[in-house]
Fold each of these.
Amino acid sequence: MISRIDLRGDALPEGGALRDLLPRAEFDVEAALEKVRPICEDVHHRGTAALIEYAQKFDGVTLEQVRVPAEALKTALDELDPAVRAALEESIRRARIVHREQRRTEHTTQVVPGGTVTEKWVPVERVGLYAPGGRSVYPSSVVMNVVPAQEAGVESIALASPPQKEFGGLPHPTILAACALLGVDEVYAAGGAQAVAMFAYGTSGPDGCPPANMVTGPGNIWVAAAKRYFTGKIGIDTEAGPTEIAVLADSTADPVHVAADLISQAEHDPLAAAVLVTDSAELADAVEKELEPQVAATKHVEDRIKPALAGKQSAIVLVDSLEDGLKVVDAYGAEHLEIQTADAAAWAARVRNAGAIFVGPWAPVSLGDYCAGSNHVLPTGGCACHSSGLSVQSFLRGIHIVDYTRDALAEVTHHVVTLAEAEDLPAHGAALKARFGWKVPTQ
């Protein structure tokens, strides 16, 4: 059901050589880019008409308008299962607690008497958020995108989610209900690359969508490719690929827990990655044995879980020691990393590369997906080696404000002129000389 990679016996290679030995899903965004390019440009030129046409082509629905009516949002919330509403409200409450603490404050530094630099944090004006549809419905992704944007102070928030034939061309009602709970009333029935293009270019008309400064949220390869296409025109969070879990475990780990956690990620998608890294062959055997009955007892077995576990992106990786295991998970840079070892907190503290780290047996990834308070929009495909998950900071821009008096400028002018001339940019120095009668002030 799941393959093994045995890295025991020899010294582990370094850097890219080690990464090349580890399992990873194939996710060719560059190839998809050429397919989304004409879609994006069609939305640019035809706007809403193109969105309606693609809804028919890709989603099998006929739309009269793309923007979701306000009454549909209200109805979705009114008809939401009370237990689901309570769970969403608790998820929102916990996410707000965490993300509110991430807010940054303005800070002024006096560099010299009369010379200060202030860094202020300004939210982007408008964001387009994406909540995926397809195999599953993700109201949790609505929470994870909207809450940090709101806590950052973004004034204009719009959300897109694919139209669903089952629901008359509207996004899934639980998505709409989550939007209503969060106070987001600008919602569009649009999916895939065309939704990203709608946010990037904007559309006109009665239900048109003004262009956004930034687009965030997970999606399929077409969404990722569209984000790459628009990088530079708009801000993006990350090009999200198939979801991943890596578990670093030793002989103290419970194989029932480990197997359940691997399966929990595998049920997302046939390309989902489930990786166990362990120095215990006995644990590896026990987990592999435990997978069989747990997989048989759940849903989505043939179309998602079995292909995911059997795919080249999933494996049990055997290592000589937890020290080697730490090197492996740092090279892998998992979206979600569980530490199920003795002294789990100590090992977790040494991890350098992960989207989010889950410490010990009582902090499974599923908790982070919904109600830990953390954000589940995280870097995939090894991008955790250089990128962070979604947060309040994602929606903020740091701006430096430079304020110098005449005397403070005079005191440093000779250094500026010297450096300008060293770079053969004399006009830079002249901009200061002009303020002092074309003479460098005497020091």
Amino acid sequence: MNKIKVSSPEKITARIQLPSSKSICNRALVIKALSKNEDKSIDNLSDCDDTSVMIKALKNMPETIDIMAAGTAMRFLTAYLSVTEGVHVITGTERMRQRPIKILVDALRSIGADIEYTENEGFPPLRIKGRELEGEEIELPGNVSSQYISALMMIGPVLKNGLRLRLTGDIISRPYINLTIEIMKEFGGKAEWTGDNLITIYSQPYKAIPYYVESDWSAASYWYEMAALSDEACIELPGLFEKSFQGDSKVAELFEQLGVSTEYGDKSVTLRKDGKHTAIMEYDFVNQPDLAQTFVVTCCMMGIPFRFSGLQSLKIKETDRIAALITEMRKLGYIISESNGSELSWKGERCESETNPAIDTYEDHRMAMAFAPAALKLKNIRINNPHVVSKSYPKYWEDLTKAGFSITEE
């Protein structure tokens, strides 16, 4: 499928089983592997690409591990392999080999890790010779991807002297760091903030436990978007918890400003369109960068001007998401402005839209999923290379069909 046409229903009434959280899956898989206990299972694992490559790598441990486009797996496995016996090369897609990893490699080398670049300095592929590491203290900038920080945190309990992580400057994506702390604790690890910018991880072995993975709040964001853009909606999403450690659970509160209410049940939520919305939206997405595409598209489609900041990490995601959003929204007739490499704003400026525009997805699952709901306002929309959703939500198009959308190949 190189291109699909997505056509919208009149209203949405649906019960959708979301994929489980890949953020939780990938952390739980690494921690379970570090506990060295095969007896306990992790239930409700995601079937997305990012989790599949992690499961395969940890199960088979081949000499060359190809994680394809899975950035989380690249970062988490780099740290994991550093403390695990054996020699491995870890590589990925061409785009993955262009994504920087020097900060994480330097941090691991500072505590004795044996890591070499096999091609370009500062980028994958990496050759890693695992060994026992002592630990102590690492200092790194707080504004780097939280996945670097989480990767280091998770190996902390198996280091001889534990680990102290001192984060300098502004700390971004703090909820993802807190998510890692909570999952580590559930597996018997001991990690805590011992200062405003200091995380202490104690040398204390993990214990394997039976574990159930919550559904993905990031995936839920697209259903909130559909509720906001529809005339009438009632959408039940089982598997989501009201008291969630996922940073993207903030989506429920944010969509209240766009006329979507959330009713919490026992391990489920129900979304309803209530029609009341803000005149202008301003938000700092530093802690929820993966929600940015959803809100840019939603606000434009609803005619709500916005100013979104804290988007600096979007430039090093699967694609430069800031540039991609500006380009693709222009196809639909919206002129979005960028400033400081970390802000996107729209004051209502329009241009002529393309006839029958097709949205490019840039090998980025979130571009496809954020733009598809625009069909509710445009009647239909075309998406190029729609298969990219397999990275985090393989059944996305199937679920849209269940909710009344029409998906046709072109």
Amino acid sequence: MSETQTNTLQYRFDGPEDAPVLILGPSLGTTWHMWDRQIPELVRQWRVFRFDLPGHGGAPAHPADSVAELSARLLATLDAVGVQRFGYAGCALGGAIGMELALRHPERIASLALVATSPRFGTADEFRQRGVIVRTNGLDPIARTSPDRWFTGGFAAAQPAITEWAVQMVRTTDPGCYIAACEALAGFDVRSEMGRIGVPTLVLVGSDDQVTGPAEARTLVAGIPDARLAVVPGASHLVPVEQPAAVTDLLVRHFSSAWQPAIDSTTGQMAIVAAPAKPVLAAAPQAAPIAEIAPPVAPAQPPGRPDAYETGLKIRREVLGDAHVDRALAQSDDFSGDFQEFITRYAWGEIWERPGLDRRARSCVTLTALVAGGHLEELAFHTRAALRNGLTPDEIKEVLLQAAVYCGVPAANSAFRVAQQVVREETTPAE
């Protein structure tokens, strides 16, 4: 077990000290215990390293709001314990960390397994909306609905103890760290870079996963040159928990046969060694995995250097949401297109990008200015933006009360009516 600093992660080792290291990365809202049922078999060949995300499983609550930052903390932790090269298997957010490592630090990874993972997780709006709900209502609404996202209905009904364990695991997570992890998933998108992942990769998914299902898995296999797909029947998102024998079998087979040797730093070449014999493990009959091999595709070209417009478009989407920005751009034409480019480049790429105020402060200023000008339509979507930027409903209320003093009661009365409706829509958890 570990003691954790701000720039490292809580971790534990299992298995013999002289064995090669295999890392298991957790999903959002889970702890390293999601891999408990894989450990007895994996430690026969590997020294297994598991870690907790910040604020999860009692880990210190030092939020990290990007996959890159989580990856950096993991590498700092590994450096501190002397682990330089490793195999890596991660579920969902843990899989995103694995892809980040394979792209930015390929010399560290010998082989990769991506479980219930996607090159982009839904839309940024979905995760920022989840952050708004947690900030307003706490984690209880997310915790109560987690089993519906994580397990098939039959498993949840047959395993009430595991279902309750899942609820409590989310409920005891630090809300600020959970929100930051949502932000990390909102900003994660490696669709254009997958072709540069150069290690043997297993893509593993439950057949009934409604979060990152077989369609997302096939996208990964099509984009990663040396990738195989395994679909586990009768499993949803937390497939290592729901079908542990099948997942263990697949991981052992993959890491036994696809452990890529290290690159010789003096020659830049890689030694070719014979693959070890594949072990044969008996998986549960109802969970017999189906594996497919997909042909590689040419890697995508890296994007060009962003200018103020590209920066502005990114910030505009982060603050206002993809759906709003997509509507605005779709409605532009020859008459209004120049204006859309103007506000994207200068309002968002220049002003909102400036470091002098954080986004919370800019939202306060913007709401006040919109109340003063009586711009109620823009007040509505900037109230949504303020919630995404981290303001709570109570803080928005205080901004509008302040505006009532300096902008006038009638203006504030109209503003409260608009903002009240938006807050209700944005902070009411979905049933």
